Amino acid sequence: MNPIRMVTRPIKNLTDAIVMPFRAIFVTGLCAFINWMTFNGHWWFKWVAFGMGIAVLVAFARAARTLFLLGLVAWGGWWLHKRYGDDARRRFDDWVRRTQPQAQEVLLALRGSPAAAR
């Protein structure tokens, strides 16, 4: 199992959990219809239904894992904000403001202004 896949596929996991039950109903119904049309005394579509039921449970488990990890990340962010709060945000914003030049400073540097050489 690829550990990166767990991080990069949360949207697919959630959409599979929504779509898979409908897909299972369609496939099972189609197989039941085929089994009914070609009936020879054995109802084999129940195995298709069993397999699709397992696929639905796996899709639900993956979605639950994804939601758990997203909740864990959200809780971590809430805890960091509660612990360090607005003071850390203010210091970070000040640091960004100091390190990122403003548009006027960039234009002065590109023009070769002596004021930008300081």
Question: What would you note in describing this structure?
Answer:
It is built from four helices and no strands. Helix 2 (10-37) packs antiparallel against helix 3. It has 118 residues and is an all-alpha fold. It has helices at residues 3-8, 10-37, 45-99, 103-111. It has a domain at 3-82. 83% of the residues lie in helices and 0% in strands.
What is this structure's SSE topology?
Layout lengths: L2 H6 L1 H28 L7 H55 L3 H9 L7
Helix pairs in contact: 2-3
Helix/strand order: HHHH
Largest sheet: none
Kindly state the mean pLDDT as a whole number?
Answer: 87
Radius of gyration: 28 Å
Tell me the distance between the termini. Answer: 55 Å
- Backbone structural class: mainly alpha
| Number of strand elements | 0
What gross morphology would you assign? elongated
The helix content is over 70%
* Low-pLDDT ranges: none
Hey, roughly how much beta strand do the residues contain? under 5%
Count, helices: 4
